[in-house]
Design a protein that fits this description.
This protein is α+β, with helices and mostly antiparallel strands. The chain has 12 helices and 7 strands. About 2% of the residues have low confidence. One of its GO terms (biological process) is negative regulation of bacterial-type flagellum-dependent cell motility.
Length: 388
């Protein structure tokens, strides 16, 4: 396969992806695009146009097939890197990649206007491609230690192929006529093949990694509350199960606090659900500030939450509950022009050796209901003495 055929393959491959993404976007028009997907789509469109122009070199004016085509190609590389960083949770386009793109286009266009040798222009293009590929690898390399095998493979393959592309550019500048053991055609072929593999490795890698992240997020949402980002009922029960088992052995007890925000229904009725959501998130943050790193807070539903306190007796748990109650009452929540004062009722118990999750929560709920009957905004401890 000659160089021109590879360039055509790059153009057609990117055009095919653009078409597929167009129909995918029409089908998923009501769903929000994942992080970085918009930048990734733009990258595919730019690279499709650029490779198409490079393939038509000789049939179109040089201005279109050399400086303009490379400017579009560099923009495609930059948007590729931006998509990877957005997927990693950071937006670096305006601050870093846009200035780097401007410099890259300026250097290449200046080299063309000054009629510098083709080898020098190829060297600049290879270094630009290498820079943006390294930027993509940097985004991929974030969290290397906890990264999946797919992420690590993409980092290593990107770095390896980038090295070949950069070496191709360096050799084009230093050895424009090749050497006895290295012909210019071989250097050019190695560089374009590496760029081909880098481009389509980037394409399929992005799709696979996006899918992997989506599956990971779906798995997380099975055990987490999307509003407050604490465990949901299922997640809390899963975390509590080992501590219920440990309660059958001698050792320090584990306490459970059942908390409900008082008259929370009126917040949604008077101010609307968006304000209610804001109040919930704020109050959860207030509660978490009163807890240790080893403690766990979970949402049982509505305005009811449970708090697990490992290695904590009932007396200490009551002190923690009282501290939480005071912190909630002392912090009015600002929601637009409204200032909302909240209180909470709390029931406290500890895990008994004979407890199951049902009996444990029943006892904590009875204490909570007693707190509400006695006027709300108070802490009530349940009797945790084992039944004889």
């Amino acid at each position: 396969m000659d160089i021109k055929t590879l360039v055509l393959a790059l153009a057609l491959g990117n055009f095919s992806l653009c078409a597929a993404l167009f129909f995918y976007q029409q089908q998923e028009v009501r769903s929000a695009p994942s992080a970085g997907l918009r930048s990734w789509r733009i990258a595919r469109q730019l690279q499709a146009v650029a490779w198409g122009l490079l393939y038509l070199r000789g049939a179109l004016p040089d201005f279109l097939t050399i400086p303009f085509a490379y400017a579009v190609l560099f923009s495609g590389f930059a948007f590729d890197a931006s998509a990877w960083w957005e997927l990693a949770g950071r937006r670096v386009w305006r601050r870093y990649l846009l200035p780097a793109l401007g410099v890259s286009i300026g250097l290449f266009t200046g080299a063309w206007l000054l009629d510098m040798p083709a080898g020098d222009r190829i060297g600049i293009a290879a270094l630009v491609a290498g820079f943006f590929a390294l930027a993509s690898a940097g985004a991929l390399g974030r969290g290397w230690r906890r990264g999946t095998l797919l992420r690590r493979y993409l980092v290593l393959s990107t770095l390896s192929l980038t090295l070949v592309v950069v070496l191709r550019g360096v050799l084009a500048v230093l050895l424009p006529d090749g050497a006895e053991w290295l012909s210019p055609a071989l250097v050019q072929a190695a560089g374009i093949v590496a760029l081909y593999l880098l481009t389509f490795g980037n394409v399929f890698g992005y799709l696979l990694l996006s899918r992997e992240q989506q599956e990971s997020e779906l798995a997380r949402l099975e055990v987490a509350d999307p509003l407050t980002d604490v465990p949901n009922r299922r997640g809390f029960y899963l975390a509590l199960a080992p501590w219920i088992a440990l309660a059958r052995r001698p050792g320090q007890p584990t306490a459970l606090i059942l908390l409900k925000f008082d008259d929370f229904k009126r917040i949604n009725e008077h101010y609307g659900h968006p304000v209610g959501d804001l109040v919930l998130k704020t109050l959860v943050e207030v509660c978490q500030k009163q807890l240790r790193d080893s403690d766990l807070m979970g949402r049982m539903g509505g305005a009811e939450f449970a708090i697990q306190l490992p290695r904590t007796g009932q007396e200490d748990a009551c002190m923690v509950a009282e501290r939480i109650r005071l912190a909630i009452a002392a912090l009015p929540v600002k929601a637009g022009k409204a200032v909302i004062n909240m209180t909470a009722s709390l029931g406290v118990t500890t895990i008994r050796p004979d407890d199951a999750a049902v009996s444990l929560f029943k006892r904590a709920d009875e204490a909570l209901q007693q707190a509400k009957r006695e006027g709300r905004n108070r802490v009530v401890a349940a009797d945790s003495t084992p039944e004889v």
